[in-house]
């Protein structure tokens, strides 16, 4: 059974609207991209939570997921939502790599904030 079919079967019941939303696209989307779409939200509903939980227990290439998140600029959302939904189910190496990217992001944000304050004080 393929990743896509078994995952859709698993979430079919209470999350039918979510499955219907992504089903037409699922043939052309990788499991990593489907997971990225579910994680790249400011608020997770029950459908997304169930989908993400099921997806990370399947054939997700976590290196590819991280690469996609970085490419699309949604790494902080992916981190926050994976941490809230299924952090313990993720491989330790992926957890530390993702946490490292978040630490680098926080450092960059601190630098940019300090630069903004400096510019505001100059005017």
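Q: What amino acid sequence fits the structure above?
A:
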């Amino acid at each position: 059974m393929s990743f896509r079919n078994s995952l859709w079967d698993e979430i079919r019941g209470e999350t039918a609207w979510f499955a219907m939303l992504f089903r037409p696209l699922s043939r052309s989307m990788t499991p990593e991209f489907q997971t990225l779409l579910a994680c790249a939200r400011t608020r997770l509903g029950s459908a997304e939570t169930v989908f993400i939980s099921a997806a990370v227990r399947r054939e997700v290439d976590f290196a590819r997921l991280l690469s996609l998140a970085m490419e699309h600029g949604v790494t902080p959302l992916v981190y926050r939502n994976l941490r809230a939904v299924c952090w313990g189910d993720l491989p330790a190496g992926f957890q530390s790599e993702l946490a490292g990217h978040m630490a680098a992001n926080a450092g960059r944000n601190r630098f940019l904030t300090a630069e903004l304050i400096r510019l505001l004080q100059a005017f």
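Q: And what stands out in the fold?
A: The two ends are 63 Å apart (CA to CA).
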